Amino acid sequence: MLFLLDYGAGNVASLANSIRQLGHDFRWIETPADFAEATSLIFPGVGAFESAIQHLARRGLLEPLRAYIASGRPYFGICIGLQVLFESSEESPSAGLGIIPCPIQRFSNEDKSVPHIGWNSANLLDEEPETVDAYYYFVHSYCAKYDPEKYPEAAQWAHTTTQYGQEIFVSAVRKGNVFGTQFHPEKSGAAGLALINAWLRAPDVHAPIGPRVAREPNPNHGLTKRIIACMDVRANDAGDLVVTKGDQYDVREKATDVSATTGGAVRNLGKPVALAARYYDAGADELCLLNITSFRHSPLHDQPMLAVVRAAAERLFVPFTIGGGIKDTVDPDGTVRPALEVASAYFRAGADKVSIGSEAVSAVERLRERGGVPDGTSAIETIAHAYGRQAVVVSIDPRRAYVDKDYAGRHAGELVRGPDGKAWWYQCTVSGGRETRDLSVVELAQGVDALGAGEILLNSIDHDGTGLGFDLDLLALVKRSVRIPVVASSGAGKAAHFVEAFAQTGVEAALAAGIFHREEVGIGEVKDALRAAQINVRR
Ligand code: 1PR
């Protein structure tokens, strides 16, 4: 019987969905005794190394896991499920299982953004010449460096390697009964499903291992730029959850451009799960669902939204982010729900990342009041501690604040000047742009980086829905202010806009909504334009 090990933190729903999709049965390891019944085992560890080890130890599963692997029965570890095989991690004071004698180390952010998020190639070591296996989805800040001179025994375990920046790391291990991937096959589309299927069919095939020699990094790594489709979701006036889309965040139909019967109604562009499935089939690298009116309700009472996430997770085998209302909330009956609990509900339903908006602004305001010293209580910190920083996206909704040409106020150092002589700074807003704060986008971006966010989703209220292109000044400003990946958002009107965003600002991903919903531009068309401009994208 195949068993899955769920240590209680992280999205294991995706792997369960993939296995069901492939037509296999499985059971969950619930007690130490269950290991005895397992004839094969997958450990889909998502999250942070420290929480994983502590959860396993607390539930008495760590030693049975070690004994299971030593018994020679097939084991497949994913992400943290691979990392626990190693002796230690810079992420944690707890020791790993020590099966592979090598530490897990943090990527250097000298030459690149960390975490490493996105689709990268895995290169097989036992093929001649080293062949690219396929593109898989990675999301991690720590890795096992591939270094046969320093860690010769560990290098014997390496099955594939991957290059990020100028670092080469072990992206899959295979030896005896043990297989493990740093990437997430359950989130890697058709290539990932094929890999899981191959292991399920022959979990104990032992590949021969050839000699391991040091490899020189290529001038360019294989990480691709990501194209993300975003769905803003809210209840329409009939109470159904629909995908909507605003112009500069106004999602209601204008009385002038529609019939008198729909004027003023919430714009309805389709059903969230059906649209998400369409984007998955069209080759979207990621999807994003934003519950744009969640600030009005307690999201844990927002069962329709959780149901949407569950249904989408059954159909999507690429990562997806859920945003809106990720903050400490109080239920109508007075029950306090910490942000971590809200996020956990979404992760359990199948989301891979949560996106925090308004609460991130408050957290950075509090951080500034404390002179830049984090206190560990913000939603960003608590969720990143439990699930790893790569699971925490911060969605920023800035708006241009125009000032006189002789402005000398607090934000004078961050002014951007347009060709027409106008000057502005980018001011942060909350509650979908309804309120502004005396906080600039640079202060917010650097603050959330310091608090432990893994990625920034950078909207622009000025450009949203205009089709005029991304706000390149804004993207460049934020990109050079932080060391975490930045996702460009708002304003895409044609494929060339994606090319200019990547080429001119170096952002890691670009997101669009309106043009995809209205089928004006396809995801394939965007990728063709990027490929023609020599920008690496996943096929
Ligand atoms: O504050 O944590 O509850 O999160 C609320 C989330 O909802 C935030 O991520 C915020 O950006 C989003 N949101 C709130 N109100 C709106 C609105 O439109 N009225 N949508 C809203 C934000 C921007 C993007 C949009 C891009 C691309 N929408 O999601 O998809 O601008 O659009 P385009 O390609 O058509 O130009 P919290």
SSE order and pairing:
Layout: E1 2-5, H1 13-21, E2 27-29, E3 40-45, H2 49-58, H3 62-70, E4 75-79, H4 80-83, E5 86-89, E6 100-106, E7 116-124, E8 132-140, E9 142-143, H5 152-155, E10 158-164, E11 167-175, E12 178-181, H6 189-201, E13 226-235, E14 241-244, H7 272-281, E15 286-291, H8 303-315, E16 320-323, E17 329-330, E18 336-337, H9 339-349, E19 353-356, H10 358-369, H11 379-387, E20 392-396, E21 398-403, E22 416-417, E23 423-430, E24 435-440, H12 441-451, E25 455-458, H13 472-479, E26 486-488, H14 495-505, E27 509-512, H15 514-517, H16 523-532
Parallel strand pairs: 1-2, 1-3, 3-4, 4-12, 5-6, 13-15, 13-27, 15-16, 16-19, 19-20, 20-25, 25-26, 26-27
Antiparallel strand pairs: 6-9, 7-8, 7-10, 10-11, 11-12, 13-14, 17-18, 21-23, 22-23, 23-24
Report on this model:
- The protein is an alpha/beta fold and 539 residues long.
- The protein has two domains: 2-201, Class I glutamine amidotransferase (GATase) domain (Rossmann fold), CATH 3.40.50; 226-532, Aldolase class I (TIM Barrel, Alpha-Beta Barrel).
- The protein contains 16 helices and 27 strands.
- It has a nine-stranded mixed β-sheet.
- A hairpin with a 5-residue loop joins strand 13 and strand 14.
- Helix 7 (272-281) packs parallel to helix 8 (303-315) and helix 9 (339-349) packs across helix 11.
- It is globular and about 70 Å long.
- It starts with a strand and ends in a 7-residue tail after the last helix.
- The model has no long low-confidence stretch (mean pLDDT 91).
- It binds ligand 1PR.
